[in-house]
Amino acid sequence: MTVFFKKILHNNWPLILAGGVPCFILFLIYLAQGVFPFGDSSLLTVDLGQQYVDFYTYYRNTLLGDPTSFFYSFSKAIGGDMIGLWAYYLTSPFNLILLLFPARLITLGITVLTLTKISLAGLSFGILLKKAFNGKGLYLATFSTSYALMGYTIVNQLNIMWLDGLIFLPLVILGIEKLVFEKRGLFYTVFLALMLIANYYIAYMICLFSILYFIFRLTAIQFPLKTTVKEKVIFLSKQLARFSWHSLLGGGLTSILLVPTFHALLDSKASYSDFSFEWKFAFPIQEMISKLYIGAFNFDQMPDGYPNLFIGSLALICFVSFLFSRAFPIRERLMAFLIVLFLVVSMDLKAFNIVWHGFQYPIWYPYRFSFVLCFFMILNGYRAFIKLERLSIPGMLLVVVSTTVAAFYMLKHPFDFVYHEQIILTSLFIAIVTFLLIVKPKYTLWLPFLLFLVSAVEMGINAQLDLSRLSYVSNSEFLEYRREFAPVIDHIKEKDDGFYRVEKTFLRSKNDSFQFDYPSVTHFSSTFEKEVPTLFGNLGFPVGNGFIAYSNATLATDALFGIKYYVAENNALYEKSQDDLVDPATGQTALAKNKLTELTQKNNPTNLTQLQLTIMATKPDLRSYSKLTNTDRMTTFKNQNALSIAYGVDKDILKVKELTNQPIQLQENILRALSPNEKKRYFTPIAFNSTVYQNITPNNQYPNPTFFKQIANNKATVDFQFTPQTNDAYYLTLGPSVKEEDATFYLNGKKLSQYKTYRDTLILNVANQQKDQTVTITVELKKESLWLEQFQLYHFDTTAFEKIVTNLKENELNIEKFGNTYFKGTATITDENKILMTTIPYSKGWRVSIDGKTVSTTKVLNSLLAVRITKGTHKIDISYQTPYFKIGLLISFISLILLVLTNWLFHRGKRHKHF
C-alpha cells in the first residue's frame, strides 16, 4: 500500500499541489480572519447569509427527511415549485458534503464546501494542462493556483453554486480538445451534462464560451500542404457536426431537470423583466484596467461594479506574450485576440452583456461570465510560457511601458477600490515576474520554485484584501438565533400537526421558513414565481423581484392566507390584561407555560442579551390574538380566524380584478366578493383628530400632503393623532414615494418598525384593542421636504369581518391527510354556485378531483388555484406533479441510448479502421 501511494504521489504531485495550494492559502486566510471553528466569524455575507445557508439546511432536510419537498414546498412563500430552485441553487454534486454536518454546524459545512470547490477548480485546471498541453511540474501548479484564486473566484465565493463552473469549465474544454484532436466526444458530453446539472445558469455561459473555444481550436489544426479547400471544408463540417451532436446529447441527458426548470423559469426569473437590446456601453472601456490590480474590490463593486479580471502578473504577462509569440500560428493568435476583444466588448456593450446573462440583466454581481475570459487568458498564458525561452527585450519594454502607462492612468483617474499602495504592489509583482522571465534560461533549477512562490504570494494577498472588504455574520449570532427560534417552531409543531402557516414580526433572513422547515409567506429567491409577489404587492406588502416580506398584514390577510401562528419579539405593545392571555384549546394562561422558556435557555447557554432581533413589522393586531407561549425574547400568538388551505366562496370572487397601489380597495373588493349579501364597507376612511406641526409648512392636500421644513437644519416633525372609538383594528396607507431615507415614523413615541418600502403602497397597522386611547403617529423629516403619498387612515370593522370568517369556516376544507404535494379531505358547501378557492399559487402541475372526478382548475386574483364546486359534502383530492417532468425524463432516456449508441459506433469504427 505504501508503494502504491508513493507511486501516486510521484506521478501526480503537481496535480496535488494544483488542488492543495489554493485550499491551503484560503485556509490560512480563514484562520487569520477567525472563521469558525478558528474564531467567531463565518463566511455568511450578502446572499450566502440571506439565501443560500437557508437553502442548504432545506437541502439536508429534503435528502435526510422528506424527499417530496424536492418537487414542491410550502416553505417557499405560500407554496411553489421547487425544481427550478434546486436547479439554480442546489443540484451541485458537491453539496453532498453538507450531509456530513448537522444543521447546527451548517456554517462549518459551508466553509468546507467552499474550500473543496476552490481546491477542485485548481485540480481540474491542472488536469486540463496535463492531459491536453503536456503540463507538468511546478509550472502546472503555478498556473492552476492562479486560476483557482483569480479575482472572480474570491469575489464570488459567496455565490457558492457558481464555483461549480470553475471546476467543470476546464473539464468541458478538455472534452473539446479530445473531440477536436481525437474525435472522441464522450468525455465532452458527460462533463457538459454534469455542468448543466450542477448549475444551468453558469453552464449556459460555459456553453456560449465553448462555441468560441471550439472555433479557436479549429485554427490550430494543421492540414497537409496538398489538402484542397473542399477537403478542408468537409473536414471542418464533420468537426462542427460532431461538436453539435455531442452538445445536443449533453443537453438531452439533463432534460429530466432542465425541461421542467425551463418551464419554471418562464414563471419566475425570466418573467421579471422585459427583454430589450441596448446598444450602449456601460462604462469607458479603459476603466477595466482597474480590475487588473491586486485587491481591486470593495462592497460597492457587488451591486454595480466592473468585471473581475485579476489573474496575477505571471498569467497576464504570459498571455500578452502569447499574442506575439511566433511559436503559434498567426491565425491562432489572431483568433485569440478576436475572442478576447469580443469578450471585453461583451462586458461593456449592454446588448452583448444581456445575452451572456440569459437575456436578463443581473441584479447585483454584474459580469458573471468574466471567468471565461480569465480562464482563456490563463490557459493561453501557460501555453506561451512553456514555449518561452526567455522574455525578449521588446517584450520587456512592452511590459514596462504598459505597466507605467497603466499606473499613471490609475493615479490620474482614481478608483475608490484601488489605493496607491495597491498600484505600487501590483507594479512590484509585475517587475519581479518580468525579471524572472528575463533570466529564465540561466536559472532553470530555481526558477519554477521562485515563480510558484511569487505567484502564490500575489494571489494570496489579493484574496486576503478582497475578503477583508466584506462584513460577515458572526457564527455565534447565527447559532443564537437558531437556538432561540428553533424550539419555538418545534413547540408549535408538537402542539398542532395540521396544515397552517407561521409568520413573524422579525427575521434573520427572508428564508427562515427553509432554515426551520415551516410553511410561511416571506420568501426570497431568484426562482420565485412572479404572480405571487405581484399579488402581495397589490395587497399592501413590501415586494420586489423575487421576494415578499409579510410585514404589513391585516386581520383579513392573516385569516384568508391561513396565518395561524405568529411569533413576535417581546413587546409591551402586544400585551393585554392577563385574563386575556388564555389558550382556548387548553384553558391555560401563557404564564403557566414555562417549559418552552426553560428549553430555549438550555439550548442557548450563552449570554442571552447578545442576540438582537431584526424587527420588520409593528403589529398591534396581535393584541386580538391568543397568546400561547413566551420565551425571554419571543412570544407566540394564535390566530383563531385562520382558515384552511381551501374554502368555498361565492362565484363573485372571479370578478375581483387586480388593483395597483390600492391595497385597501383590493382587500375591500375581496371581502365584498366573499359576502355578496352584505351591503357595507369593511375598511372605512377616517380623518385624524388633530395634526401638530414642528418646523413644518404643510400644503394640506390630503391624502397626498407635502411638508416643507421651515428651518433647514432643525428637527422637523408632524404629529397625527386620533382616538379609536372601538377596539377594532386601524390601518394607515403609505404610498411608494416614501423611502427609508426620506422620513422616520414613530407610533406613540416608539420607532415604527417597517420593512423597507420599494414599489407598492403599504398598509401599516397602527392600532387594535385601544378604544378611547389616543394614538399618535409622528413623522420626522430627514430631507427638506416630504410627500406623503396616499397617507390615509382606515377603520376596519372587525365584527363584520368575523361574520365572513364564520361563514368561510363552515365551507372550508377539513384536511385529513396532506404533504408537500397533496391535500385530501372533505368540504361541506352550504350554497350553490360556489368556488372552492385555495391559497395555493396557480400552476398547471396542480390537479383537483372532487368525489373522484378530475375537474378543471382556474385562477382567482390572477394567481391562486380554484375550482367550481356544487352544494353538498364532497371528497376533495388536490395533488401536484411537476409540469413537463415526464417529458424531460423521456428525453433524457432517449439521449442516454443515443450516447451509448454513438460511443459504440465510434469504437466499432476504430476497430474496423485498425484491421
Automatic annotation (TrEMBL):
InterPro entries: Uncharacterised_YfhO
Entry keyword Iron: no
Residues spanning the membrane: 12-32, 70-89, 96-118, 138-155, 162-181, 187-216, 245-266, 306-324, 336-356, 362-379, 391-411, 417-438, 445-465, 884-906
Pfam families with a match to the protein in the record: YfhO
Superkingdom of this protein's organism: Bacteria
Keywords attached to this entry: Membrane, Transmembrane, Transmembrane helix
UniProt protein name: YfhO family protein
